[in-house]
Design brief:
With 70 residues, the protein is mainly alpha-helical. It contains three helices and no strands. It is rod-shaped, with a radius of gyration of 20 Å. The model has no long low-confidence stretch (mean pLDDT 84).
């Protein structure tokens, strides 16, 4: 999760001139760490959900055991 924290902080800093919400956050240093933590958590959950979905999709392709395989 920490691996996502630094890039999100960097994106907010770089795009603060183009995204008004990022500019608002950047001007409020007390709120910035909490917003970055929330965005990081959401991204981690999204990536976890995607990876779990991919592994479940791959599990359906495995061959089923037959009675003779036991």
């Amino acid at each position: 999760m920490f691996a996502l924290h630094i890039p999100i902080y960097g994106v907010i800093g770089e795009w603060r001139g183009q995204v008004p919400a990022f500019a608002w956050l950047w001007d409020r240093p007390a709120a910035l760490p909490f917003a970055v933590a929330a965005l990081t958590t959401l991204m981690a959950l999204l990536l976890y959900g995607l990876s779990a979905g991919l592994s479940l999709a791959g599990a359906g392709r495995k061959e089923r055991k037959t009675h003779e395989d036991h």
